[in-house]
Amino acid sequence: ATNKNHQLRHVESMNILPSGAGNIPELNAVILGESLASEEHDLVFPNPKFSQHALVSSPQKYLEMYTRSIEDPAGFWSDIASEFYWKKKWGQQVCSQNLDVTKGRINIEWFKGGLTNICYNCLDKNIESGNGDKIALHWEGNELNIDGSLTYKQLLEKVCQLANFLKDNGVKKGDTVIVYLPMIMELPITMLACARIGAVHSVVFAGYSAESLHQRVMDCKPKIVITCNAVMRGKKVINLKEIVDAALSESSQNGVFVATCLTFENESAMKKEDTKWLKGRDVWWQDVVPKCSTTCDVEWVDAEDPLFLLYTSGSTGKPKGVLHTTGGYMIYTATTFKYAFDYKDTDIYWCTADCGWITGHSYVTYGPLLNGATVVLYEGVPNYPDAGRCWDIVDKYKVTIFYTAPTLVRSLMRDGDDYVTRYSRKSLRVLGSVGEPINPSAWRWFFNVVGDSRCPISDTWWQTETGGFMITPIPGAWPQKPGSATLPFFGVQPVIVDEKGNEIDGECSGYLCVKNSWPGAFRTLYGDHERYETTYFSAFPGYYFSGDGCSRDKDGYHWLTGRVDDVINVSGHRIGTAEVESALVSHPQCAEAAVVGVEHEVKGQGIYAFVTLVDGIPYSEELRKSLVLVVRNQIGAFAAPDRIHWAPSLPKTRSGKIMRRILRKIASKQLDELGDISTLADPSVVDQLIALADS
Ligand code: WT7
C-alpha cells in the first residue's frame, strides 16, 4: 500500500458490537477491520476523543438508531418531526407510499395533513428559542475586504420585507418565482421569502445561459423573476441582467410574459447607471424592498405542498423540474445535516456550493438554518486572489465544518501544500465532500493536509432527487475508507441490483437502488409525472433507481462508481450528453454529434464531443471555437466541451445506433479495449477516427 508515509489514524481496537447486531451484516466487519492489505480497504478510525463527544458515538449507537429507523420509520421520523413547529399536526398516517409501478401510480407522502412553514422553522423558531442575536449568515465578498453579516433577527426582517413585496405584487401561495442570483445574501433571503408565503422558488444557477434560463421560464411560467445586475467572479464581471433580459425577451416572444423583474444592485460589481433597463418591467430591489414592513404573517402550508422546483439534467435534452415538498424535506435536510456533520451549536459552517444547485438548497440554506447554525456564504471563486482563499476564509470566520467537492480538492492539491499550511485551520473539526466519488489520493490530501489528520471526512452520496444525504459517514461513529461513502443514513435502505432487477447481497456490484421512501425524496417531475415514473421507477419495479453504479465490499461499505446513464459529471455538475449534443447540432455547420465523458484530472469527467460536419465543410480551428461557443451559449460555460474530435462519420450499428461504448474507448485512448466492432455497419470508421484523434 502507498499510504505508509501518511498519518492515517489506525487504532488497534474498537468496541465490539453487542452480539445480535449481526442482523445488519454491514457493521460486523467494520469492527473487525480485517482487510487492511489493499489500499482501497484501509480503515481510518475516528479519534476516540472525537467519538466521545459525537452525536453518534459508536457503531452500536448507530445500529440502534438505524434499526429503529427501518423497523419503525413512522415512529422514528415523527419523533424527530415533533421537535419542529407545526401549526397543526399531521394526520394518522406519517407516510404513505407506492414505489411499485406495477401496482399503480407512484406516490410518496410524508406528514400529510400537517401544517407548517419551513421559513418559520428556520427563523422565527430559532429567534423564539433565544438565538435571535446569533449570526445566521456571514457573507464574504469576492474581494478580500468586502463582507457582511446578518443575525437571525435581521435575516427575518429582510425575509419579511421581500415576502411583503412579493405579496404586494400578486405572488400567492403555489405561484412560481424564478431566482437568478449569485451567492449574495439576497439569494437565501429570496428562497426563505418565497417559502414564507408558500410560493414555489425555482433557483437557476447564475452560470446558466440565457437560453437555459428561457427554457426554465417557459416550463414553470414564473410570476416574477429575481436577479441582480452583475457579479464579480475573480477578476471578471458577469453581466447577469443582460442574460435575464435576453431570456425574458425570448420567452415573451414565445408567449410567456413575466411582468416583473426585481433586480438587486450589486454595487461592487456594477453601478445602477450602467445597467440596461426595461421600464415597466424592471424594478430596483433597493428602491422597493426596504420600504416594505419588516414583519409578515406566515402562510401555513400542508406538508405536501410544494416548496421548490430545481431543474436538473437527464438523458434527454429537456431538463427535469425536480419537485420537493415542504414537511418531509424539512425534517430530512435538518436531520441529515445534524448527524452527517455532527453539528453542535458552536459550529461555524461553510459549504462552498452555490445555492443554484441542490447542495446549496439543502446544505447552505435549509438544513443549517433549521439547526440554528451560523453559515458562511462566499460570493467568489475559491482560488481568487490565490489558491489560499478558502483557508483564509476558514481562519477569518473560524469555520469548524467545511463542505466542498472533490474537484476543488483536486485543484487545490495541484496548487501545492504551501497555500494550505500558511493558514492555521485549527478551527476545522469536520470535512465533507459531495458531487462525485472522491478518489483516494484526493481524500488523503484533504484528510492529511487540509484537516491535519484530525478531521473526519463525510463523503456524502445523494442527488437532486433525494433531497438530502443517502449514504454518508457519520463522523465519530465508525471508521472510514478513503473513497467510500460508507453506510446508509437513517431510514435509507440502499440495495444493489443486477440487470434483471434482482437484489444482490454481500460483496457485489451493480445498480444502486433504494427500497422504501425517505422523507426528503422528490415527489414528481414538474408537469410530467409520467417521466418521473419511467425514469426512476420503471427500470427496476419496486425500487427507486438512482442512475448510479455501485459496489459493496465485504465490510458492507458502498463505493459509488459513477453514472450508468447518459449523464456525465463535470466538476460535480450533472450534464446530459443529449443536451450538449443538441446544442452542437444547432450549429449550422454541424450535422451530427456524439458526446461522451472522459476522465479528467481536476474535473473528474471532461466533455469529449465527436462531431460530423455538414458535407463539404472543412474542419478548422475557427470552427472548433464556434462549436464550443454554441454550447456555452445554449447551456453555460461549465458545459463547454474540453475536446472536439472531428468525425467524418460515426460508428453505428446496421440499424443506425451510435455505439458510444466504442467512442468512449477512443476518447480515453484505450484502443486495446475497443471490444467487438464487427457489428458496425462500417468497421473502418473506427480506424479513421483513431487516425484523426491527434489532429
Ligand atoms: C449525482 C447527483 C447531490 C449533490 C451534488 C450533485 C454523483 C454525488 C456523490 C458522492 C459519488 C456522487 C452521483 C449522483 N454524486 N455525490 N459523494 N460520491 N458520487 O447532485 O447534480 O443531482 O448529481 O452526483 O453520480 O447520481 P446532482
From TrEMBL:
User: Which intervals hold domain AMP-binding enzyme C-terminal?
Assistant: 579-657
Which GO molecular function annotations are given, in alphabetical order?
acetate-CoA ligase activity; AMP binding; ATP binding
- Looking at the record, the residues that make up the Acetyl-coenzyme A synthetase N-terminal domain are 62-122
Q: Does the keyword NAD apply?
A: no
So what EC number does this one have?
A: 6.2.1.1
Record Gene3D superfamilies:
3.30.300.30, N-terminal domain of ligase-like
Q: Mind telling me which SUPFAM superfamilies this protein's record contains? A: Acetyl-CoA synthetase-like (SSF56801)
InterPro entries linked? Ac_CoA_lig, ACAS_N, AMP-bd_C, AMP-bd_C_sf, AMP-binding_CS, AMP-dep_synth/lig_dom, ANL_N_sf
Q: What is this protein called?
A: Acetyl-coenzyme A synthetase
